[in-house]
Write a structure and sequence with these properties.
The structure holds 2 protein chains of 2 kinds. Chain A is 75% helix and 0% strand. By secondary structure, chain A is an all-alpha fold. In chain A, helix 5 (103-112) packs across helix 6. The chains are: A mainly alpha, B mainly alpha. The interface between A and B is large, with 108 and 117 residues.
């Protein structure tokens, strides 16, 4: 097991920030901060009253610029091959729309409001994520 | 105003993802690797996010509209069906395969353009493909 105290503090503080973002969108806009739902809705060409989806996504997209202005952005290396990236992207796209949510919509918002659908969805995608990493790292 | 608040929410959401380490795909895979070098830090991301969000969802329960006067739009479905479970399973496989879920992938478009770009294009294609198949 990896136990990095700094990383854990960052994780907790980052999580609290995510919680505040969820709260702002809920309390002011009355909307659920589910990224796949916001993006999926933005792709449906019904623009009337949907502007908030585009500004939310713009904020998300620009967040590393703001982060980078005050602190050093973490260096990240993605080890997956391009083929794996394309397959994973397709699976995440189809899966999140079919299952009505991802880590944010089900894992955070859904669990926070004790939705049984979201609890089942979160257990399912975590289970299949664990299984996939197990096959990738320990069987292949 | 709703546009501005959504922008601020997106910005803070992204900052949280970066600070918490969620944009680092290796962290995600280490979190999912429970039989190997398991990294529990992402449990704390969920814990932090859930603590704050749960309070907000409780506060909003008594209201029918948001502070900006918009109707509160919560999912109404409560049936656990095959679509929910199959969709979550497919998402889980994709998540484990690379370590990206939708939020961190969008945030990484600026920092990791080639790989995150390829992922986001594939993800958007998957979403559009689902819309076509679901019609």
């Amino acid at each position: 097991m990896i136990w990095d105290t700094t990383a854990i503090w960052h994780a907790l503080l980052g999580g609290i920030l995510i919680g505040f973002a969820v709260s702002i969108l809920l309390i002011f806009n009355g909307k659920i901060a589910g990224i796949s739902g916001i993006l999926g809705g933005a792709l449906n060409a019904k623009f009337h009253g949907q502007g908030w989806r585009y500004t939310f996504l713009l904020g998300l997209l620009l967040s590393p610029v703001l982060y980078g202005a005050f602190s050093t952005l973490p260096t990240i290396t993605i080890s997956a091959s391009n083929t794996a990236i394309v397959i994973a992207g397709l699976l995440v796209g189809v899966g999140t729309r079919m299952g009505n949510g991802c880590t944010s919509g089900h894992g955070i918002c859904g669990i926070a409001r004790l939705s049984s659908r979201s609890i089942i969805a979160t257990l399912t995608f975590m289970g299949f994520g664990i299984l996939t990493v197990f096959i990738l790292r320990h069987l292949i | 105003m709703t546009l501005l608040f959504a922008f601020i929410a997106g910005l803070i959401f992204g900052l949280g993802l970066i600070l918490s380490g969620m944009t680092n795909t290796a962290n995600i895979q280490n979190f999912l690797d429970i039989t190997g070098h398991w990294d529990p830090s992402l449990m704390f991301v969920m814990a932090g996010a859930l603590m704050v969000s749960a309070v907000s969802f409780m506060l909003i329960k008594a209201r029918s509209s948001s502070l900006l006067g918009v109707a509160i739009d919560l999912p109404k479905k409560s049936i656990i069906d095959q679509k929910l479970v199959t969709g979550a399973a497919l998402f889980g496989v994709g998540w484990g395969l690379v370590g990206f879920c939708p939020g961190p992938a969008i945030v990484s478009l600026v920092t990791q353009p080639p790989q995150a770009g390829l992922f986001v294009i594939s993800m958007v294609s998957g979403m559009l493909l689902f819309n076509v198949l679901n019609k």
